């Protein structure tokens, strides 16, 4: 109980800049290490040829589906846990944590069974060409086998982060990713397993991360506990978890759909276009992971303090995170724009067409980078305070409501050049859409802060 109270005091009284930074550093490290491992996969697989590089982009869509399930249940559980602990409803937090965890395992098993039975058709639907298909199948079958533990790991990671214990989450996620980086060359080239070696490395690393995260929680580090006896028997609990996590499902689900559509459009311009877009997406995710990581340090602070009705701290958290996010993305945009060809060459040196396409994609994205944190911070805030429908709408803009129409219009009117600029234009449009929601939210938050001050003054009198 003393530890629980100490954690509550930490989350609701520590100065905002110090608290968010201390929670964000481990999550940024986790995101960067994960992004490096993704790029390492791309780097080593690229040595097997352009078709193999394209296969990584195809299976990335499958991993986005797995992430959609994991993030939905993980962020849904995590958001609720933060607010419940802020309101000191610890037993309810146990119920949410256990329900989310075991449901993730079940959904992962169902996805694995369906995917393995229909692997050929699935790869084709995800945008694989005939030349890429054998590589994509070899990679995807191992990813599907790992679906249950991957889904469950997202829930475990979010339970730790939602309680402000991001350092422990970092240990689990980063350990698996580092092991993956070392396993890639050993399995791909040392044991001559080709692209299957990359997939097995991913499977092994995900299993290790899962075991580490689960052991941390079972040792009693967290306030919320995992036990099958805590699983809710009420359908309302699962509905609430899914509803709260719906923005994450929408974001990840649309990311998967958008990647599939992107691959289907790009495949008409050859394997080089698919490979270039795959490499570009990994590079951009590495850059974007810094903002996401900082935002993940921000999220539990918002959840705790909103649950504790400390609205002034919620407002301060939003502005601090936005300023840091814009600054990070501006610096990365300048560097990325100047050195775009050199960055692409790190992954593939001998295909000038891939380098040219990838460089144009990266430079277009750099122009839009400083606008990205606006929608990201708004989306994270609304999800953590329980405004699920608003968060869902905003999460659907970047890679759905904006991305898909821009992709088809750009491809029709400008061909490959239109495809290359799609994500950048979608990011700018999503920022414009998010601003009115942010203004309304801040007005309402200011009213609550004003009411609290007036009530406090009346009490003193």
TrEMBL record:
UniProt main location, coarse: membrane
NCBIfam families tied to this protein: matE
Keyword set includes Translocase: no
Record-stated family: Belongs to the multi antimicrobial extrusion (MATE) (TC 2.A.66.1) family. MepA subfamily.
Tagged with keyword Cell membrane: yes
Protein localization: Cell membrane
Protein name: Multidrug export protein MepA
Keywords (A to Z) from UniProt: Antibiotic resistance, Cell membrane, Membrane, Transmembrane, Transmembrane helix, Transport
Source superkingdom: Bacteria
Residues annotated as transmembrane: 20-40, 52-75, 96-119, 139-156, 168-191, 197-221, 253-277, 283-306, 318-342, 362-380, 401-419, 425-445
Entry membrane topology: Multi-pass membrane protein
């Amino acid at each position: 109980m003393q530890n629980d109270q100490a954690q509550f005091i930490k989350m609701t009284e520590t100065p905002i800049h110090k608290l968010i930074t201390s929670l964000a550093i481990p999550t940024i490290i986790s995101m960067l290490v994960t992004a490096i491992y993704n790029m390492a996969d791309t780097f080593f697989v690229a040595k097997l040829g352009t078709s193999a590089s394209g296969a990584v982009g195809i299976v990335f869509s499958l991993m986005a589906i797995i992430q959609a399930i994991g993030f939905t249940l993980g962020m849904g559980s995590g958001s609720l846990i933060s607010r419940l602990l802020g309101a000191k409803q610890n037993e309810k937090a146990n119920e949410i944590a256990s329900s989310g965890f075991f449901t993730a395992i079940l959904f992962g098993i169902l996805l694995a069974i369906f995917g393995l039975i229909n692997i050929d058709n699935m790869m084709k639907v995800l945008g694989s060409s005939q030349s890429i298909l054998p590589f994509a199948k070899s990679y995807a079958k191992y990813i599907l086998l790992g679906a249950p533990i991957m889904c469950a790991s997202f829930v475990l990671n979010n339970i730790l982060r939602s309680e402000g214990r991001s350092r422990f989450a970092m240990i689990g996620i980063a350990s698996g990713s580092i092991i993956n980086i070392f396993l890639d060359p050993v399995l791909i080239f040392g044991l001559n397993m080709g692209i299957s070696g990359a997939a097995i490395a991913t499977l092994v690393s995900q299993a290790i991360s899962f075991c580490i995260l689960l052991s941390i929680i079972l040792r009693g580090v967290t306030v919320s506990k995992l036990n099958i006896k805590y699983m809710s028997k009420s359908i309302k609990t699962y509905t609430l978890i899914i509803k709260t996590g719906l923005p994450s499902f929408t974001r990840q689900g649309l990311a998967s759909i958008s990647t599939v559509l992107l691959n289907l459009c790009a495949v008409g311009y050859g394997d080089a276009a698919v490979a270039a877009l795959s490499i570009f997406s990994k590079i951009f995710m590495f850059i974007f992971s810094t903002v996401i990581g900082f935002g993940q340090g921000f999220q539990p602070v918002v959840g705790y303090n909103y649950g504790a009705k400390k609205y002034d701290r919620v407002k301060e958290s939003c502005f601090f995170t936005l300023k840091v996010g814009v600054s990070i993305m501006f610096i990365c945009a300048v560097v990325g724009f100047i050195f775009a060809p050199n960055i692409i060459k790190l992954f593939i040196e001998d295909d000038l067409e891939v380098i040219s396409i990838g460089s144009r994609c990266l430079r277009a994205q750099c122009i839009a980078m400083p606008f990205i944190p606006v929608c990201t911070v708004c989306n994270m805030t609304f999800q953590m305070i329980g405004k699920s429908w608003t968060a869902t709408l905003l999460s659907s803009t970047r890679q759905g409501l904006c991305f898909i129409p821009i992709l088809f219009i750009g491809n029709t009117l400008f061909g490959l050049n239109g495809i290359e600029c799609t994500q950048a234009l979608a990011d700018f449009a999503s920022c414009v859409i998010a601003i009115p929601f942010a203004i309304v939210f801040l007005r309402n938050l200011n009213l609550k802060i004003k009411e609290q001050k007036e009530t406090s003054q009346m009490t003193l009198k």
